[in-house]
Amino acid sequence: DLVLTRGVSVWGLEVKAGSTVHAADCAGLRRLMHQAGASFRGGALLYAGSDVLPIPGTPFLAVPLRKLWEL
User: What distance in Å separates the CA atoms of residue 10 and residue 1, rounded to the nearest whole number?
Assistant: First the structure.
């Protein structure tokens, strides 16, 4: 997992080995969002699946790890 900061802005990345995601997988991102408050700018969960997906009940996206190499 990774926390990125620039000035007072904070972003979070959470990494999961599984090919499916659930809202519970974002516990670390949710905690970071609450701790960072207004400084939190966003977060994503990197996973072993194939599609970029919204994670129900959260403001986060699930992003396939392989997308990092397609940029």
Answer: 14
Dist CA 71 CA 59 (whole Å): 23
Amino acid of residue 51: D
- 0.70 cut: is pTM over it? yes
Is 30:14 a contact under the CB 8 Å cutoff?
no
Q: In 1-71, which ranges are E strands?
A: 2-6, 9-15, 40-47, 53-54, 61-64
- Using one digit for the tens of pLDDT, what is the confidence trace for 1-59? 999 999 999 999 999 999 999 999 999 999 999 999 999 999 999 999 999 999 988 99
Burial degree of 60 (CB within 10 A; 0-12, 13-18, 19+) = buried
